[in-house]
Amino acid sequence: MQSSLSYGTSRLLPPSSLRPKVHVVLFTGQSIRTVSRFSATPLGFFAGFIVILGGPTLGYSQAVDAPEIAAPAADISPLTDGDAFSRLQTDMFYLADDERTGRGPGTPGLDQAAEYIANVFRDAGLKTDLIDGQPFQPFQIELGAEATDEANNYVLVTDSKGPPQRYALDVGMRPLALGASGEANGRLVFVGYGISAPELNYDDFAGVDIEGAIVMLIRKAPTTPDKKGPFDAKQNARHTYFSTKVQAAVQRGAAGVLIVNDPASGAAQRRRLQQRVAAEQERIDTIDKNIADAPAGLTKVISRLQETREVSVKQIKQLETELALAENALLQVGEAGGLKDPVSAPVISFSRKAASQMLKESLGSDLETIEQEIGSTHQPQSREIPDLELKVKTEIRDSKITTSNVLATLPGRGPLANETVVIGAHYDHVGMGGNGSLAPGTIAVHNGADDNGSGTVTLLEVARRMRAEFAESESHRRILFIAFSGEERGLLGSKFYIANPVFPLQDTVAMINLDMVGRLKDNEVTVYGTGTAMEFDGLLDRINEKSQFNLTRVASGYGPSDHSSFYQAKIPVLFYFTGLHNDYHRPSDDFDKIDFGGLVRITDTVLSTAKFLATGTRPTYQSTEPGAKITRQLTVHLGIRMQNGDNFVRIAEVAPSSPAERAGLRSGDIVTQMDGKPIKHSDEILAALRNKNPADLMTVAVKRGADVQKFRVLLGQRE
Fold this sequence. Notes:
By secondary structure, the chain is of the alpha+beta class.
């Protein structure tokens, strides 16, 4: 996953007196990860400097009537450790490196990340022997169906005119989870596309006997040259479903089903592999140039570049092997459906190349010719294939992997020692794409720098600094740090912890969740769960006096991240989030787009929040409504700085040449309405703008002196 206010509706800087300090970071040998992903990055980048804006901007304090958490005795001003910036970078370099391969479930990269997190917890002096002497809380994740082994998955074709031909797992065949594990024997019958649609005057099963036979059918449906045939219409798409075709065959007595991929899907599969090979080769070429340009003294940099190059070389070899097999156009095991309700017969994805050869030798026409004939004539071409007998065998199982939450604790002291405050962040991501990726068809490393490398590195930095925060405290609650796995598969890690808590849930007073906090923009931070304890609004007001964020508050404790598991266990939650963006669950969510200055400030804020929760009055749980909407970052530019008053918002400054200035808005105007909706707080302005797109018109009503005036604002594109 967001007084005076920063330019919350634009990309403007706050006034010069309150502009952020400039952090200058010199890259070292450790900090070269960018080259492994961004092929355009020149080597000179590593010897240079990054300038990142961070530090305080304008903020506000809102008066509330809710009870407050009693302040701790010690000063709670955030400790901004001068090395936090570089430590956050170092952690992100490791966790979001290509070598972690996207931290997908069941991968070495995720296990490496878990070990890294555990080592940071140990080095921070935290107690890590929480589960059988270890920091790891293991649990299982179901990944879906998989084939067992080559001995139990094959197609054997016996030809009365020649020697038998065996088609092996992942080369000539692959079992599909749509069908059952088992064996089948029978003659081979080709049934075209396997469609029975009498209402469209088309039936591939008419006139052929498939009782006890192995049937071969083509994926999708016949297509006419003008793309206006009956199966090109969307309302007839049901006839093309895998399950519809397979059930039709099995209901007619088929002992097994071979599905042959269609030409378009096979071509797309090969094209994706070719693109991946080209991308890896481009990366190698850039690395070679950087190595050639590197000064001889940069031995660590050169060594790391060579290691990264070797990873790409191995990747190309693997891709070329896959490309050589791609002409078979095999489907993945679960691509046609799952294991929940398989049909009673084995169902197999069969090599398109092998199927075409068999049809050519037996019928005189290859697969492409038959497809064209069916498409042009709208007449089935089903028939038994003479002289061929098939034996098929499949064995499919549920695939499960073991992964772990990583836990550590700072023990409590005094009267509060047996109560717990949880700080959590998930460290898993979506691996190489596929399940969970929003880049369809893309098989590439999804490094998940923001989701949720950002939350994880913030968790680690808070863990490092927490002991010092409580060094002088005589009474505080236990702080439990949890790096969750399995979040991307349905909050599995946090759900497992709730079902198997290390410390009693009834003594867990609050949970802080960090998910997607690395894209601070326009000083906006959204905090979910503000209504889950009656004291939380007042707590946030107090903390934000120092943090100076433009806070958007969402009362609900529900949502698509790990805090929801705790809230459903009636534990108050606060979830920090800097907003959705277009790189979410895509390969482009990478290191170069992380705002490390913002992460330092969020780290300070979480430290302050945790210290309040660990030492003050226990928060009072409240129920909230489900259905919290996840906040997306603004895409429009208005160009004002806002100041909250007592139930009103004043425009403190209008940016030159901004949409606001061009529309006629002025400093000192009090915003009363936006598109007819009353405005009493800056949060309402931000909410209104989030529903807008660049070039949209918005009606803004303002009070100017004694007059109320309306202006039509043409919103700009946010940079």
